[in-house]
């Protein structure tokens, strides 16, 4: 679920609460998500370490635990974080629990266990391909149109897939890719090689405008409920069958590549063979 706008707001919320705190204990409640690369026993190794910095890079959160350890959280589609009291009900999807020295808990949950949480030393960060291969963050200083066109140049195929892969620009997932393509009036399965200069210009504008606009909405709406996804304000994503806010046609929902794509066939015309 979390994409750059979500994680931007989650990071801003967590930073003042976590930085300076010490992890008193940690528990791995379910396997397959934590990738402990340290060679040490996770719970023993992390206990007593202080959280010194929270960063975000694209769709990943980077937690610094002093000079020797890092947590890299890649929540993918169904992962998320919850900051709460130990007395709060433990959801069945909870994977990792960190007890903090101020009595709070940080929990990582993931219904489908598609995400990964890496525990490693800083010199191992280069082994996380998803981190190293990322393009410039979509919420950083925008590229100009020529730079953007050049960043997309090495990638082939459908425009939505290129956006969500994160190597040209990072931080865009399934939801915001749908929103960006709706804003740019582009058919999501259109081949990038077929985009003309004007279409590229519209795409460039939407790539930077849509996530920024979302951040300002999420900043008002999320508050301390960082574990809940706020997506109701999106225009097409998750709105299959509802009227298009621009033209009133029914929003399409197509399942492809194991995910749903929503778009308006009237505003974003095209065929799979374009
Ligand atoms: Zn429409």
Describe what you observe in this structure.
The protein has 274 residues and is α+β, with helices and mostly antiparallel strands. The chain has 7 helices and 13 strands. The model has no long low-confidence stretch (mean pLDDT 95). It has 2 domains: 4-132, MutM-like, N-terminal (N-terminal domain of MutM-like DNA repair proteins); 136-264, Orthogonal Bundle (Helicase, Ruva Protein, domain 3). Helix 1 runs parallel beside helix 7 (197-221) and helix 6 (174-183) packs across helix 7. A hairpin with a 4-residue loop joins strand 7 and strand 8 (105-110). It binds zinc ion. Zinc ion binds at residues 244, 246-247, 249, 264, 266-267.
Oligomeric description of these chains: single chain
Helix content: 25-40%
Query: Strand order within the widest sheet?
Result: 2-9-5-4-3
Question: How would you describe the shape?
Answer: globular
Largest sheet entry: 5 strands, mixed
CATH topology type of the largest domain: N-terminal domain of MutM-like DNA repair proteins
By DSSP, the count of extended strands is 13
Question: Using only CA atoms, what is the Rg?
Answer: 20 Å
Which structural class should the secondary elements be placed in?
Answer: alpha+beta
Would you state the CATH class of the largest domain?
A: Alpha Beta
CATH homologous group name of the largest domain: MutM-like, N-terminal
Order of H and E elements? HEEHEEEEEEEHEHHEHHEE
Indicate the low-confidence ranges by residue numbers: none
Q: What's the mean pLDDT score?
A: 95
């Amino acid at each position: 679920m979390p994409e750059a706008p979500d994680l931007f707001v989650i990071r801003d919320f967590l930073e003042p609460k976590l930085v300076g705190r010490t992890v008193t204990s940690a528990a791995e409640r379910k396997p397959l998500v934590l990738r402990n690369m340290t060679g040490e026993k996770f719970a023993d190794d992390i206990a007593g370490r202080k959280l010194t910095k929270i960063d975000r890079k694209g769709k990943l959160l980077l937690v610094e635990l002093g000079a020797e350890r890092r947590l890299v959280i890649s929540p993918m589609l169904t992962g998320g974080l919850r900051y709460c009291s130990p007395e709060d009900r433990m959801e069945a999807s909870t994977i990792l629990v960190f007890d903090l020295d101020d009595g709070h808990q940080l929990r990582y949950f993931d219904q489908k266990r598609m995400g990964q949480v890496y525990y490693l030393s800083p010199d191992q960060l280069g082994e996380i391909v998803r981190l190293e291969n990322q393009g410039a963050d979509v919420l950083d200083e925008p590229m100009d149109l020529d730079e953007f066109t050049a960043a997309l140049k090495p990638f082939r195929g459908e425009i939505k897939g290129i956006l969500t892969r994160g190597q040209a620009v990072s931080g865009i997932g399934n939801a915001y890719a749908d929103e960006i393509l709706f804003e740019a009036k582009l058919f999501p399965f259109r081949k990038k090689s077929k985009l003309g200069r004007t279409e590229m210009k519209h795409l460039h504008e939407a790539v930077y405008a849509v996530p920024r606009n979302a951040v300002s909405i999420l900043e008002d709406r999320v508050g301390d409920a960082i574990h809940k996804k706020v997506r109701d304000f999106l225009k097409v994503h998750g709105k299959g069958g509802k009227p298009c806010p621009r033209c009133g046609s029914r929003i399409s929902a197509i399942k492809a590549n194991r995910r749903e794509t929503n778009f308006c066939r009237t505003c974003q015309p095209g065929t799979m063979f374009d």
